[in-house]
Recover the amino acids of this structure.
């Protein structure tokens, strides 16, 4: 029997499974940084982590990080450098996957972290891109992490901070983005993946304790089933052991 | 050579003018010169353009205090709490007054500073293709790559020329020759692009220490107009090898700044009622000494001998 797990732990492990061995990954903070550690300890011992403050790590940091610039992320780093260098690698097509979060995502995977309501008729000012626009444009695969609520998963975002499939179909390529796009959206209820000619996000897997109907009711567009729709596999004992080895204080357990 | 050593008060008073474009927080979450943030507020500087890729809570504090009329950067908030409450109040309700934002991504800001540093008329990037940042900030221009015969959209980024850049460094000599280590963010580009640089040095060392490892110098000492010896000048942000981050301070600021009144009383307690940074160190007492990095993980020396 699999060990008990929290929603956040499940999201971390689902994120870890998206990292392949040997890949170069823009890690980001919070859940993805732990997911990178789990992936390293399980199926991806040769994955490399990049941080936009200018850090490259082969080994995950030994202590808990509150920001990517914290001293434990600096000590024993494989490379300490500048933002231009690590994001230059990204623009050069040398980064396999990148994680970002967001306040609002639409059915083509475009993410808004700047202006709710758009920049001309802003209702709410959000912090902005940080490196998210760059990671979305230039990673080979974009992995988004979101809370699954109808006002967050919307038909069309009011402002594209970070491009996913733009207007769907070939529009991303026509905009000049030669590669990349949304590979998976990992939420607290489900995993969505693009499917079909338009590349619209479809329901790919349903987390334990949730139903497809409930997930669709919490999505701001008519969410269709992915042909491979299945339950999200529960964390294995190996994955949970790896997670507990990193999250010693149980930060993600509740 | 003449010493550039001055007090924090003098550096801020004499180098940073109302209306200046100022880089504060080039290191992302790392090495943010908060002592200058606090002193700008105490001196009541006005109409600053705050330049930083992400500034953690520094820009939010300056906005709430009425020091800024614009922000040029990729992200404004509080890394511990998420949203920046003063930033939202200024953008949504013009409190304490209206604020303009010049949207960038981290990479496009690095490239704008690089263009400024090296005298380039612009830098072409692909990184902002598809993003509405090219719509909301006209300093990014979308056009066809003139060197390609095929359809190849690129985004030109206009150079950024800050008046002043401020950095926290672990060590500097009195002439502004300094060592930086750990992650650098856009420190090198900002230091080279700015007309004037202020350094907050955790430690003042002899010039021979700096010249023993010239690869750890990011920009020439002649860019530096003021050196301030200010231990923990980056507090509450971290500084590699010197100080850990005070996460509780950021959380506490996030809670208090939720409402305007709460922010104003926070500001009074932590900035306005303290005459200088030494008073903040004294007020923090053991809380600050607990953040001092006491471990040792020295790099191996590199041999620069010539014969």
């Amino acid at each position: 029997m699999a060990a008990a797990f929290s929603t956040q732990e499940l999201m971390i492990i689902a994120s870890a499974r998206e990292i392949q061995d040997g890949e170069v990954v823009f890690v980001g903070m919070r859940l993805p940084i732990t997911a990178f550690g789990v992936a390293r300890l399980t199926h991806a011992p040769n994955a490399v982590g990049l941080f936009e403050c200018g850090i490259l790590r082969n080994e995950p940091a030994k202590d808990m990080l509150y920001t990517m610039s914290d001293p434990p992320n600096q000590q024993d780093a494989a490379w300490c450098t500048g933002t231009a260098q690590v994001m230059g690698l990204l623009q050069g097509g040398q980064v396999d996957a990148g994680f970002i979060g967001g306040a609002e995502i639409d059915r083509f995977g475009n993410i808004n972290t700047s202006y709710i309501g758009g920049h001309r008729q802003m209702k709410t000012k959000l912090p902005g891109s940080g490196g998210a626009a760059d990671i979305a444009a230039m990673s080979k695969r974009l992995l988004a992490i979101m809370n699954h609520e109808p006002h967050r998963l919307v038909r069309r975002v009011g402002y594209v901070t970070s491009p996913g499939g733009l207007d769907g179909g070939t529009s991303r390529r026509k905009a000049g983005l030669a590669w990349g796009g949304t590979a998976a959206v990992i939420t607290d209820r489900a995993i969505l993946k693009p499917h079909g000619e338009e590349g619209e996000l479809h329901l790919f897997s349903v987390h334990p304790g949730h139903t497809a109907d409930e997930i669709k009711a919490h999505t701001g567009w008519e969410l269709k089933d992915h042909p491979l729709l299945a339950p999200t596999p529960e964390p294995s004992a190996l994955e949970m052991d790896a997670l507990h080895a990193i999250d010693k204080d149980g930060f993600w357990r509740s | 050579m003449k010493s550039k050593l001055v007090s924090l008060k003098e550096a801020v008073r004499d180098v940073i003018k109302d209306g200046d474009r100022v880089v504060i927080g080039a290191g992302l979450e790392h090495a943010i010169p908060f002592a200058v943030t606090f002193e700008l507020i105490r001196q009541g500087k006005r109409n600053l353009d705050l330049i930083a890729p992400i500034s953690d809570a520094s820009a939010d504090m300056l906005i709430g205090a009425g020091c800024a009329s614009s922000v040029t950067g990729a992200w404004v908030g509080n890394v511990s709490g998420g949203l920046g409450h003063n930033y939202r109040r200024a953008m949504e309700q013009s409190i304490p007054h209206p604020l303009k934002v010049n949207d960038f991504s981290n990479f496009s800001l690095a490239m704008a500073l690089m263009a400024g540093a090296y005298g380039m008329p612009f830098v072409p990037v692909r990184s902002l293709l598809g993003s509405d940042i090219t719509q909301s900030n006209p300093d990014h221009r979308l056009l066809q790559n003139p060197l390609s015969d095929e359809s190849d959209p690129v985004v030109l980024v206009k150079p950024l020329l800050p008046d002043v850049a401020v950095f926290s460094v672990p060590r500097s000599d009195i002439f502004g020759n300094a060592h930086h280590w750990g992650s650098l963010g856009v420190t090198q580009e900002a230091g080279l692009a700015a007309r004037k640089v202020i350094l907050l040095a955790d430690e003042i060392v002899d010039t021979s220490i700096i010249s023993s490892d010239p690869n750890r110098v990011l920009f020439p000492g002649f860019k530096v107009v003021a050196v301030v010896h200010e231990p923990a000048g980056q507090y509450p942000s971290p500084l590699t090898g010197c100080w850990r981050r005070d996460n509780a301070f950021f959380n506490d600021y996030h809670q208090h700044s939720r409402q305007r009144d709460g922010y104003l009383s926070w500001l009074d307690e932590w900035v306005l009622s303290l005459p200088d940074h030494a008073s903040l160190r004294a007020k923090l007492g053991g809380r600050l000494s607990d953040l001092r990095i006491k471990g040792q993980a020295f790099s191996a020396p590199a041999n620069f001998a010539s014969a």
